[in-house]
Amino acid sequence: MTQDDSTLEPPSEGPTPSVRDENNRHLLGELRYNSVQNVLVSGIFVIFFAQHSGSTMLWTWWSGFAVLVAVRAGVLRWMEVAQPVNEPMCSKAIYACIGATALAWGFAPLACVPSHSEMSFILAVSWVSIVVLGGAGAFQDDPIATAVLALPATLPSIVILLANQDRTSYVVVAALGLIYAHLAIGVVRARRARAIELQLKDENANLMAEYQSQARLASAEIERRLHMERELRAARHRAERLSSLDGLTGIANRRYFDEQLESELARTFRAQKPVGLVLMDVDCFKQYNDTLGHGAGDDCLAEIGKILAGYARRSGDLAARYGGEEFVLLLPESDLAAALGIAESVRMSIIERAIPHPASEVAAVVTASFGVASLTPGAEHTARQLVEAADRALYQAKNAGRNRVESAA
Question: Of 80, 325, 326, 361, which is the active-site residue?
């Protein structure tokens, strides 16, 4: 039994989402949840710096920022609901939302300029830098999202600081440079870790697919071997059964009878039950063959076998061909009287079958002689003793004129 290997491949579970699509979903989720945070943080920023600057400009900036965040939230929501969305288009829209928000934060320190306080401006720049660092941490290993967030949010302030041409401004710019250099290194490391994670994920998926394929192959091989084992067991059973049958009559043969006799004697010895044995010989069978031919003789023996098999009715009873024209009935748990009764019934059934025998010295039809023996096995008894007793009784039946039943003395 073979099986096509193509049927053992793991079933397809649909197309695997691309890295870009997975990244887009992550960014959409992060941006959706930080919209409210942006509004709250920008509100705190305005309240904190309003006392040092012209309140009109700060509140104007905050109003525009809130409108921008609301529009951004609507765009992001549309991209989540709309199906399907082209991946490159979706990525550009997400980066545009990030860049617009970052640029709005980049103008936040400029709203503090009317205060003419350099320290206030530097403090605002620091505030925005903290916002950028917090937002970049949510973008994992996406360098584009990080750059789109960091550059628009800090470039306007850096330009103004460099234009001041004083030591404090240079120190702040250098500090910002170090901060963003550290951020860039973190992005590179995160990207490398992400690449390793994806590689391990792919390797695990391949290993799992290979394991499932090997498991299916092993299961199919086990099933094939079990099927072969069942077939071999059935063939062996058929062979054993055929080896225990007589080819002509279809009942048990001499070898199987000998095995069963030994087994039944051992069993009845333990149970202290009697064992009956009927040995039968077809009368004048040589003359039957000589007159009608061996083909007719075989048909006669087959008919006798059928009659005998009809009397092996109980579990353990056995009808067998003993050899030539001799047959035997093994009758466990049957005493001599029961065995004699069955032998007489068989004798009458053969006569009633009325198989013509023109050369018989006994009758015009086929008849048979029977020797019957029975014993309750003891430690000193053997199978041979029981067979010899039945054989002596059969000899008596033949000497007494055949077509009769005799029992062992």
Answer: 325
